[in-house]
Amino acid sequence: MNYDLSTEEQDLYDRVSDFADTVVAPAAYEYDTQRRLPMEIIAQMGEMGLFGLPFPTTYGGQGKDYFQLCLAVEALGRVDQSIGVTLEAGVGLGIMPIYRNGSPAQREKWLPDLIAGRALAGFGLTEARAGSDAGATETTAVLDGDEWVINGSKQFITNSGTPITRIVTITAVTGERVGRDGRTKPELSTIIVPNATPGFTVEPSYDKVGWHTSDTHPLTLENVRVPRENLLGDRGRGYANFLQTLDEGRVAFAALATGAAQGCLEEALRYAKERVVFGTTIGSNQHIAFTIAKMQARVHQARLAWHDAARKIVAGRPFKMEASIAKMVSGEAAMDNARDATQIFGGYGFLNQNAVARHYRDSKILEIGEGTTEVQLMIITRELGLAG
């Protein structure tokens, strides 16, 4: 496995990093305190082609690949995780299911604006009693003539209530099927729901510990009617479709976490070289130096892990276990680096205008979102043949 970036990949990373440093970082504290997604920054990201990176030029995309999307997510995550996850979720959870499973008509209708960044889409999977156990989904969709009638609710849905959100793809029980074991199981399907549909309510945003800029809402669906052709992919294939979506999403999520770990490392290293105590820089203290050395090691591990998984996606090779390893390793690296960076900054690290303070609040979700650390361990053990 070659972990070197090509000239094209390095140029992309440098370009997005420069945008992150000059545009995103200076505004991060203001938007964090206002708890709103800066749509002007999202518009600039659309103009840069970031939402279209892994999609063909046929739909207005950049014709690149999933690895390059992850590079962009990492570069943004260095300075603002909320902006990074807006791109990660917007592409991986919003656009990718339609690109992979949509009909020609659905692709033609929705992809151009989503890929250009003129619109955003969400993916409605999680419910109050159906998170890690997605098979417990209670939202239902019943055919009534040529329309699906949907009832239920969703939780923690990213990009679901922005001014440019057009659709949310939701999972719903559309019937029952008999499994190979002879037992009756819920038939799970995915359906596209436009945000302006009557009965579809985007509830007030959450009061979150971190990711204050990221748009996250609960959703309520009461007798929501959408055309029969809004079924995304084959009926009853919803479970398989969202598993593929989550597997790929974990790799981009790992890139986001790696960026956060890198950002904490950069801030701690800069401060350790500048801060003078008792006549010398704190970086000359062996404990501080060793702490930063461990932070560097964590970033290196996390980056190698997501690079490995993303390269396998691009090569069309199996990557499920590698995706879970990358998600777990990088999430822990981000949280550990945020904790260490905050400690190195001391009291200054406890001020919200400090980037490491925001990373400290933001990073905990990196061990929870897109599948908790415990879920990743379950997947890894299953891939090793150790558990059913």
Automatic annotation (TrEMBL):
Location of the Acyl-CoA dehydrogenase/oxidase C-terminal domain: 236-384
A Pfam family that the UniProt record links to this protein: Acyl-CoA_dh_M
GO molecular function, one term: acyl-CoA dehydrogenase activity
Xref: InterPro entries: Acyl-CoA_DH_CS, Acyl-CoA_Oxase/DH_mid-dom, Acyl-CoA_Oxase/DH_mid-dom_sf, AcylCo_DH-like_C, AcylCo_DH/oxidase_C, AcylCoA_DH/ox_N, AcylCoA_DH/ox_N_sf, AcylCoA_DH/oxidase_NM_dom_sf
Acyl-CoA dehydrogenase/oxidase N-terminal domain: residues covered: 7-117
Membership in a protein family: Belongs to the acyl-CoA dehydrogenase family.
PANTHER family: ACYL-COA DEHYDROGENASE (PTHR43884), ISOVALERYL-COA DEHYDROGENASE, MITOCHONDRIAL-RELATED (PTHR43884:SF12)
The protein, known as: Acyl-CoA dehydrogenase
Protein source organism: Orlajensenia flava
